[in-house]
């Protein structure tokens, strides 16, 4: 796998000045392929279509509005950083996508399917910030990753050859094949994080949602995971066929502003609504960050 290199990012929908409704609006409609593009190769056409599309999403907890008219569009082969202060609605957004919430309105689509159908089809992979798991339970890394295949097995839970192949590929991609017989509780924080990402990959999900994936992870492991995920979204020549692993679109919530230029292709600034969605450098402009965080911020974390 190649190392993580800083990159210059641009977004054709970025505009000058402060965030506005134009910057956070649904930019999927602005980039529909023209007739010549529609006649290009299938892979190129697929990369130009939205994988995740959220329109006017509203979520409330009782009388508290957690999300209001949130819009977001993420295409294939993109890593989108979801950035905002605590309480901005990042985890709520992920919950709305992955399970639905009682007081929720608006639309969420994955590859043109409504969220409920996408979940049933296993198109959404989710790695929460913390896992509710008994770390002393005698279960191996391989068995944990195999859980991602349960939706493909039916009620019998009979493991087929394609399930084993998907698990082996996911283990290899996350570079934890040598740990597959280890008990999950024996691993470090960074290794555990790789295991749960591998489980989501083995599922065959097209979009991967990561909620604060680097919290409690050492910097060496963080850089390694970033590199592996970038390779997944942007495979190098000769590594584009991962068999049963279909993930190529990643949305990651994070507080670490310093990692955005190294890891993400684009950024969505969230404060109950999407204030800005575009290039990484544009998202880091002080006035935009002040709007998102409501205070002066410094690279790496928000200022108290």
UniProtKB/TrEMBL annotation:
SMART domains: AAA (SM00382)
Pfam families xref list: ABC_tran (PF00005)
Record's compositionally biased regions (Basic and acidic residues): 1-13, 27-37
PROSITE patterns for this protein: ABC_TRANSPORTER_1 (PS00211), ABC_TRANSPORTER_2 (PS50893)
Gene3D superfamilies attached to this UniProt entry: P-loop containing nucleotide triphosphate hydrolases (3.40.50.300)
Single GO term (MF): ATP hydrolysis activity
Domain ABC transporter: 52-297
Keyword Transport applies: yes
Keyword Cell membrane applies: no
Keyword vocabulary terms for this entry: ATP-binding, Nucleotide-binding, Transport
Residue segments, region Disordered: 1-45
Family listed: Belongs to the ABC transporter superfamily.
Name under which the protein is recorded: ABC transporter ATP-binding protein
Species of provenance: Mobiluncus porci
Source species taxonomy: Bacteria, Bacillati, Actinomycetota, Actinomycetes, Actinomycetales
